[in-house]
From TrEMBL:
This is Nucleotide-diphospho-sugar transferase protein. Keywords: Membrane, Transferase, Transmembrane, Transmembrane helix. One of its GO terms (molecular function) is transferase activity. InterPro entries: At1g28695/At4g15970-like, Nucl-diP-sugar_transferase. The chain crosses the membrane at residues 25-45. The keyword Kinase does not apply. It comes from the Eukaryota. The keyword Isomerase does not apply.
């Protein structure tokens, strides 16, 4: 009994079958007209005048076939994988000296993302650029986004003592590489690995599109527009556009005519020669209250975003003093709000001593 009821209900009666046919005949006529209409629109109306549909433009992938993105090279692939939807990412460059030791600098750098406020998720958008094989292996071991930067005939393996020839060479290679990233259409935060990220910097960087470059300072003079600030290229955010690409070209062009100067000094010289204004570049100099360092401590641990081991000569000294910063940070976070006003950073003793010999 139950079965037959089900049969009746599920098989159409003659009457309903007839209705079904009629409806679909109407549908068919309607669909045919729609199809012809669309065909007309797509064939005869120029693409920018099409009224009904506008397809999203494919996102800068070199070529897309059968839903498969084919990259022209490895760098485009890692940039695409690492960046946010708005083509923004974080870039750090490491060599062997930064992945070795009792506590490698790279590990300490990653500790910052773990201990910081709202910084953990940023790891997904961090690209580690390794200039030698050991650094690359360490990066993949840590399961980060990694890219191996090849440089013909140059050994970037050892620690590069501040201002040694190899140090300067490595700095220039970095400028060339970062200019290339801009040319590929990516915005980025460049960070040295001796910068501890204690808070998410995007909240303190201005989203205003008129700002092409927001760069940290060794000493902040109180004016975010003043070129009298001492810039530090160890942390900055830059947008990809014709102005910033021109800046990097002008910067790199000085490579062979800047003996004894590191790339940061060359950029500062360019700035004082009016290059920023000449290019119409929107530049903001970052307050050390938020983007601080050993040259000038942040005056507010309740707002500090980054701490850079600048004004320091060796990796060992940086690691020692940044470890102290981690302890300071834990102490500050453990204390009540009314106690952070009395907070003071520990002295950067190892870094002070690093200049003594
Ligand atoms: C096509 O790409 C999209 C987005 O990457 C993905 O979600 C989808 O599963 C892919 N489809 C096929 C058939 O591979
Ligand atoms: C990209 O998106 C992030 C997250 O929404 C935002 O903080 C950042 O300012 C954006 N970058 C640019 C260059 O607009
Ligand atoms: C961005 O900065 C420019 C120049 O300082 C200013 O005129 C403009 O109002 C700012 N835009 C926003 C959305 O704040
Ligand atoms: C900040 O510096 C800019 C550029 O030098 C200058 O035009 C402006 O007057 C300065 N602002 C203050 C408050 O001093
Ligand atoms: C190098 O710089 C000096 C002045 O700083 C300039 O006179 C000279 O033309 C430059 N040489 C090249 C090759 O750019
Ligand atoms: C901070 O506030 C707590 C209670 O809110 C109080 O017990 C403590 O004494 C205060 N500490 C200082 C240094 O004022």
């Amino acid at each position: 009994m139950k079965n037959s009821t089900a049969m009746v209900q599920s098989s159409p009666t003659k009457e309903s079958l007839c209705q079904f046919m009629k409806n679909h005949a109407v549908d068919f006529t309607f669909l045919s007209l729609l199809f012809i209409g669309l065909l007309y629109i797509f064939i005869f109306v120029p693409s920018n005048n099409r009224p009904l549909f506008s397809f999203p433009k494919p996102q800068c992938h070199p070529s897309t076939m059968f839903n498969m993105t084919i990259y022209t090279d490895e760098l485009n692939k890692v940039l695409d994988e690492t960046s946010m939807p708005n083509k923004t990412l974080i870039i750090a460059i490491v060599n062997k000296a930064y992945v070795e030791g009792d506590k490698p600098m790279l590990d300490l750098f990653m500790d910052g993302f773990w201990l910081g406020e709202e910084t953990r998720a940023l790891k997904d958008h961090l690209l580690i650029v390794a200039v030698d094989q050991t650094a690359y292996q360490r990066c993949t071991f840590l399961q980060l986004h990694c890219y191996k930067l090849e440089t013909d005939g140059v050994d970037f393996v050892g620690e590069k003592i501040y201002m040694s020839d190899d140090f300067i060479k490595m700095m220039w290679r970095r400028t060339l590489f970062l200019g290339d990233v801009l040319k590929r259409g990516y915005n980025f935060i460049f960070t040295d690995t001796d910068v501890l990220w204690l808070r998410n910097p995007f909240s303190r960087l201005s989203p205003n599109e008129t700002l092409d470059l927001q760069i940290s300072t060794d000493l902040f003079n109180g004016n975010e527009s003043s070129e009298a600030n001492h810039i530090n290229t160890g942390f900055y955010m830059i947008r990809s556009n014709t102005k910033t690409i021109a800046l990097f070209d002008a910067w790199y062009a000085k490579k062979d005519n800047s003996t004894g100067m590191k790339e940061q000094d060359v950029l500062e010289t360019l700035m004082h020669d009016g290059a920023f204004r000449g290019l119409g570049l929107g530049v903001r100099f970052l307050d050390t209250r938020y983007f601080s360092g050993f040259c000038e401590n942040s005056k507010d641990v309740g707002a500090v975003v980054t701490v850079h081991a600048n004004c320091c000569r060796s990796i060992n000294a940086k690691v020692a003093d940044l470890t102290t910063v981690v302890h300071d940070w834990k102490r500050a976070r453990g204390s009540r709000a009314n106690e952070t006003t009395a907070f003071e950073w520990s002295k950067h003793e190892a870094c002070t001593d690093s200049w003594k010999n």
